[in-house]
Write a structure and sequence with these properties.
Helix content: 40-55%
Number of strands: 11
Radius of gyration: 21 Å
Distance between the termini: 35 Å
Strand order of the largest sheet: 1-8-3-6-10
Strand content: 15-25%
Shape: globular
Order of helices and strands: HEEEEEEEEHEEHHEHHHHHHHH
Structural class: alpha+beta
Number of helices: 12
Largest sheet: 5 strands, antiparallel
């Protein structure tokens, strides 16, 4: 299952990962595949990412990370993060998502407060575990087990899954320490963007002015522009355009809308500007993306002629 396809429209993911009574799942993702990037988002699950092959760029809060095959990323619940293609690189990666309640249902218990709550309290620990480092090596075999057995039914693997997750958390929590003051400030500040990011994801086709965006964050327009760039690494206008282009790519690949209809539907009212922006971002035209997708659909849906020579 490709996580990009399933969650392309959500910035605050509310999809249930796994079963309601067993909130755990492993995904295989690929960039570029259906999308060139997975924009800023957050979710309630703890996330572990292992790079299977290639290289990609990740942003967690205000920090950027370039990850290579074998690297591991650890993302606690509710942290804003994004995944982007690096240049023309192809990257495959596994996502392991689970809720702490899977391991300890009682949030007031000693176990939960001692071992799990610290990941929710703006503390610090190394999120990028490079291949070959000590911590990467300590949790690698557990992660590989979860990946290798991802197709097994929960009914037969529940105890092993939980045991591996407990071991991973055991090693990770030992590295947690209080955040430096400046980093704690950034964590608090970027939370101010969540209402805007959610609104933008749901209303990307509308005209969203700087003044309107600034008001959602309780900031003046000039302060907002500097704040957004500092928190995300790009301007709000660029972020909105990239979001619209990603949505356009999805529509081109999955609907019968014309290129001009797609442009209008995602919020580009100047067709020439849409074509230029799309080519600048993807190195090709919307029409070529659409035609290539139609060819793939025809090839995969055409009836097979068995027994022909």
């Amino acid at each position: 299952m490709n996580r990009m396809k399933d969650e392309k429209d959500n910035i605050h993911e509310t999809k249930i990962h796994g079963r309601i009574d067993f909130p755990y799942i492993v995904y295989l993702g690929k960039i570029p595949d259906f999308l060139k990037s997975f924009p800023l988002h957050w979710h309630e699950e703890f996330e572990i990412i292992m790079i299977k092959s290639g290289t990609g760029n990740f942003r967690i809060l205000t920090e950027n990370y370039t990850c290579n095959a074998g690297d591991i990323l650890v993302i606690p619940p509710n942290l804003v993060h994004a995944i982007h293609q690096k240049d023309s690189e192809i990257m495959e990666y596994f996502n392991i998502l689970f809720k702490f309640q899977l391991l300890e249902p009682d949030e007031n218990s000693t176990t939960y407060q001692k071992y799990f709550a610290k990941f929710l309290q703006n503390n610090f620990f190394t999120v990028h575990l490079r291949y070959g480092t000590e911590l990467n090596s300590k949790i690698r075999s557990e992660i590989e087990y979860l990946i290798d057995n991802r197709h097994e039914k929960y009914e037969t693997q529940e105890l092993m899954i939980k045991s591996k997750l407990f071991q991973i958390i055991h090693y990770l929590q030992a590295t947690v320490s209080p955040l430096p003051a400046e980093s704690k400030k950034n964590v608090s500040q970027i939370s101010r963007l969540k209402p805007l990011l959610k609104y933008t994801s749901e209303n990307f086709s509308k005209d969203i002015s700087i003044n309107q965006a600034a008001e959602m964050c309780n900031l003046s327009p000039s302060h907002f522009m500097k704040f957004f760039k500092k928190m995300t690494g790009i301007t709000f206008v660029n972020y909105l355009n990239l979001l619209r282009l990603e949505k356009a790519q999805v529509l081109l690949k999955s609907t019968d809308l014309t290129v001009s209809e797609v442009a209008e539907q995602v919020g580009f009212h100047n067709f020439s500007y849409f074509i230029r922006s799309f080519h600048s971002q993807y190195g090709t035209t919307p029409g070529r993306i659409q035609n290539k997708s139609n060819i793939i659909i025809r090839e995969t849906t055409a009836p097979r002629m068995e027994g022909c020579t």
